[in-house]
Write a structure and sequence with these properties.
Blueprint lengths: L1 E5 L1 H8 L7 E5 L3 H6 L3 E2 L6 E3 L6 E4 L1 E5 L7 E5 L5 H6 L9 E3 L14 H7 L1 E2 L11 H12 L4 E2 L1 H12 L8 H12 L5 H10 L1 H5 L1 H4 L16 H14 L4 H9 L18 H16 L3 H18 L6 H10 L6 H16 L10 H14 L3 H10 L5 H19 L3
Parallel strand pairs: 2-5, 9-10
Antiparallel strand pairs: 1-2, 1-8, 3-4, 4-5, 6-7
Helix pairs in contact: 5-7, 5-8, 11-12, 11-16, 12-14, 12-16, 13-14, 14-16, 15-19, 16-17, 17-19, 18-19
């Protein structure tokens, strides 16, 4: 039984990046051998065990053989006869197919049969073997790694292989949960735009997110969007969300806020009248198809519907401000409203020449919400009851009091 450190831990240590977790592969062992030493079996599709003390995952060396469509169509063989090189051969990229002794700290030799260290030095994302084509999830993983390692390029032969996989229909068989998982991870990388650039280059974006793909080539009014192209603007917005360290719900909202511009009739371009409602409808379809978590889809819906109104909120009076806060459900969900405002800032600054510009609506609307929330609603309700007001009319009293509070706030007092 021999234990090796593999994958991301080795790669990141060679790159001088922080190592957050470890992957281990065990050569020459059986499940019974692992159990006898106290390892806990957890793998459903292949033998994976938890270390009895560290709880890190240890996988038996294995090979995989394609047996059907999609990423689940595999026959897995794990036995003491599987070598380390055979196990590494089934991995996606050469930079992830490097192994090191269990006690390796970054110095000394590594086991690198597929020249991953060479590709690390050359800053190249390259597939290990032609077996790459057997798992369409790897298309998404390469795109995600491009978003993480921003100075790496995808090897031409790897991109060609990814394109061939898409043309063969492999991407059609990806299950929603895996698409969302990889998409969410890519959105949280340092430069999420690169994920979509790679997916476009191999044709996968048109299969997985046609609503996003169709935004390229759609013009916008140059006085508001000097970058003109809607797809280019979208990538700038996503990268701004990374620059501002936005959470996932904000980044997904950024991705979907302008989907409606892809369905604007050609005869009215470059104007996009009513695109907000179309964006909301389209993103709901995306969210259902990919089974996006509720917090992400709800935040994205508010941003899609209201980002234009939030951008133009500087001249709103008390009544209009209150209506905007109500449409955003800000009074009940102030934390989500803060995310909505951050997404709107990403949208405003994700434009050519506006990257360093201030975004006053974010601070102004946050302050307006605090003024509305500061109203002592219990006292207002008590006054209404003393005046004989009952039922829904009490809510109307509170609403008028909030409008008065906002009017007072606008006057500076």
């Amino acid at each position: 039984m021999q234990i090796y450190m593999v994958g991301g831990a080795v790669r990141d240590r060679l790159l001088g990046r922080p190592v957050h977790d470890h992957d281990w592969v065990v050569v020459g062992a059986t499940p019974e051998h692992m159990a006898a030493q106290g390892y806990l079996p957890v793998g459903r599709d292949f033998p994976v065990f938890l270390h009895p003390e560290t709880r890190e995952e240890y996988a038996l060396a294995r090979t995989e053989r394609k047996s059907g469509r999609g990423y689940r169509g595999f026959v897995v063989q794990a036995s003491p006869d599987v070598t380390l090189e055979e196990d590494l051969a089934r991995r996606d990229l050469t930079i992830n197919a490097i192994a090191a002794p269990a006690d390796w700290t970054g110095a000394g030799a590594v086991f690198d049969p597929y020249h991953g260290t060479r590709d690390l030095q050359a800053r190249v994302l390259r597939h290990v073997t032609d077996a790459f084509r057997e798992d369409p999830v790897r298309i998404l993983r390469v795109a995600r790694f491009a978003a993480r390692f921003t100075d790496f390029t995808v090897a031409p032969e790897t991109l060609a292989l990814m394109r061939a996989m898409v043309e063969a229909g492999e991407a059609d068989h990806l299950v929603p949960e895996r698409v969302w998982q990889e998409l969410a991870r890519g959105l949280m990388e340092d430069k999420p735009s690169r994920m979509f650039e790679v997916l476009r280059a191999c044709g996968a974006l048109a299969v997985l997110l046609p609503e996003v793909e169709r935004l390229w080539g759609v013009p916008q009014r140059a006085e508001y969007h000097p970058e003109v192209d809607t797809g280019v603007h979208l990538m700038m917005v996503l990268d701004m969300s990374a620059r501002l360290a936005a959470p996932l719900a904000v980044r997904f909202a950024c991705l979907t806020h302008d989907l409606g511009k892809g369905t604007t009739p050609a005869d009215v371009l470059p104007r996009h009248i009513g695109h907000e409602q179309r964006s909301s409808k389209l993103l709901k379809g995306v969210a259902e198809r990919l089974r996006v978590p509720v917090d992400c889809r709800e935040t994205a819906d508010v941003v899609a519907r209201e980002h234009g109104n939030i951008h133009r909120s500087g001249d709103l009076g008390a009544a209009a401000l209150l209506r905007l806060l109500e449409r955003c459900d800000a009074l009940r969900k102030p934390a989500r409203f803060a995310d909505v405002l951050l997404a709107c800032e990403c949208d405003a600054r994700g434009r050519l020449g506006f990257e360093e510009a201030p975004y006053p609506p974010r601070g102004r609307l946050a302050a307006a919400l605090q003024a509305a929330l500061a109203l002592p609603t219990a006292e207002v309700a008590a006054r209404a009851a003393a005046a004989g007001v009952r039922g829904p009319q009490v809510g109307e009293w509170i609403r008028r009091a909030r409008e008065d509070a906002l009017a007072q706030w606008l006057r500076g007092g």
